[in-house]
Design goal:
Layout (H helix, E strand, L loop, with lengths): L2 H27 L2 E9 L5 E10 L2 E7 L8 E4 L4 E4 L1 E6 L6 H18 L2 E6 L4 H12 L6 E7 L39 H14 L3 E5 L8 H14 L4 E4 L3 H10 L3 E2 L12 H9 L4 E2 L8 E2 L5 E2 L12 H15 L5 E2 L8 H12 L5 H8 L1 H6 L17 E4 L13 E6 L2 E5 L3
Parallel strand pairs: 1-4, 1-5, 6-7, 7-8, 8-9, 9-10, 10-11, 12-15
Antiparallel strand pairs: 1-2, 2-3, 5-16, 13-14, 16-17, 17-18
Length: 429
């Protein structure tokens, strides 16, 4: 054998050893056993002292007592509470310039989700840089939650808007068209070929969902355009998720048959409109909470802030009460898969606290655990893979210090986060 072939064989052998080592490391990282755990599996079952075995990044078994056979690293939970990884089913992850975010802030901010216990996040409207971040996470070059990403597809052209005052905050929730009188003017239609091109571009870019915003105008094109988007999205395996925040717009949205409602309607009283309540529940669509948007967020100095960081607009405060009340009406009427979503820019731990504060107004501790885990999984339309601790599902697991069935705020006390069978956060002693 000549020297060149000998060198080639040595290089191939070295590469094979390196590949085997890498695969072995990955397999080890995705196998583990958690023992001595108080398990809330997300289905409502509580195991006071049990164990979880993970193989190949998925849950192999959940059982009372010690496991029949352990795998990989053994984590002694020491009686702490173990539950499914948290899911934010409506978030806007990237703030500011996308390229700058990816280069300078992405790693720290995405790690912040893991530190707070979030293993899956749906970026409802985010730029392509979030898709690039997902690629880096999947390759192991970066740590972060499982990312799902939506692309906005308009339902109509813009009607003339009131002129904004110079220097005034621009968060659209401050001056939401859904709050204004219906008016008499139809919004201009967008040509079908333009809409189709946007859908095709979103698919090519790697987006998972098509996001629409329903502000129906009299005789406008919004409902028919939504039907078209939903149909074309389904052809491409892209569900349509829809923003509708008034009862009127939610009912209009239902005619367009989207796959997910990304807000609790907070304009209008469902308790006074049984027909609307029944129609929304009978549609059997998942819905995300996003109740905190109209609750003040309190910064370090105690001043009430809106989600854009500017002073809180107290003329929107009625939504802070109406949203939770409507949520409870929907829940009592049988709405399934009402899941956790924040629709915010605050750091994940702060967003978790704010949404828990809002949910606690009308939901019990056990209901909140379901909303944050199992229900939120179905609100991302991924409930077959995540959201509960059951054999066959992805091993997304959080260990907390406390009892969320007594005190929902204990959900803040994350000590370990596991995503796909790999530890991605451990609180230092």
């Amino acid at each position: 054998m000549n020297q060149k072939n000998t060198l080639r064989l040595r290089l191939l052998a070295a590469a094979a050893v390196a590949t085997a080592a890498c695969l072995a490391h990955t397999a080890t990282a995705q196998e583990m056993t958690i023992t001595n755990a108080r398990i809330l599996d997300g289905t409502g079952r509580v195991i006071d002292r049990g164990s979880i075995v993970v193989r190949g990044g998925r849950i192999a078994s959940v059982a009372a007592g010690a496991p029949a056979q352990s795998a990989g690293r053994v984590i002694d939970a020491a009686g702490k509470t173990v539950l499914p990884g948290y899911i934010d089913a409506h978030r806007h992850v990237v703030q500011g310039n996308g390229a700058e975010w990816l280069q300078k802030r992405a790693q720290a901010e995405l790690q912040g989700f893991l530190d707070a216990g979030f293993t899956t996040v749906l970026g409802a409207i985010d730029p392509p840089e979030l898709i690039e971040a997902r690629k880096r996470i999947e390759s192991g070059a970066m740590k972060g939650p499982r990312l799902l990403v939506g692309s906005i597809i308009p339902l109509a052209g813009q009607l003339p808007q009131p002129a904004a005052q110079a220097g005034a905050p621009t968060d659209p929730a401050r001056t939401d068209p859904a709050r204004r009188p219906l008016g008499s003017q139809a919004a201009p239609a967008i040509p079908r070929e333009v809409t189709l091109k946007m859908i095709e571009d979103a698919k090519a870019a790697g987006y998972d969902y098509l996001k629409t915003v329903m502000n129906a105008t009299p005789g406008g094109p919004e409902i028919e355009t939504q039907k078209f988007i939903v149909a074309e999205g389904h052809k491409r395996g892209m569900p349509t998720i829809t923003h509708a925040v008034s009862i009127r717009d939610t009912l209009a949205t239902l005619e367009g048959k989207p796959d997910l409602l990304v807000h609790t309607p907070h304009i209008g009283d469902l308790g006074a409109d049984n027909a609307a309540l029944k129609k929304i529940v009978d549609a059997n669509l998942p819905m995300t909470s996003t109740l905190q948007v109209f609750l003040p967020h309190f910064g370090p100095d105690g001043k009430p802030l809106f989600r854009d960081g500017a002073p809180f607009p107290f003329d929107t405060l009625s939504s802070a009460g109406q949203g939770p009340v409507n949520a409870r009406h929907l829940w009592e009427a049988g709405l399934k898969n009402y899941g956790f979503g924040t629709d915010t820019q605050w750091p994940p731990k702060e967003s978790l606290f704010d949404e828990l504060r809002a949910l606690s107004l009308v939901f019990s501790p056990s209901e909140i655990v379901s909303i944050l885990t199992k229900n939120a999984a179905f609100a991302t339309l991924k409930g077959n893979d995540i959201g509960t601790l059951e054999a066959g599902k992805l091993a997304d697991i959080v260990i907390i210090d406390g009892d969320p069935l007594t005190r929902p705020v204990d959900l803040m006390n994350v000590v370990t986060t596991i995503k796909g069978g790999a530890v991605v956060f451990e609180k230092r002693p």
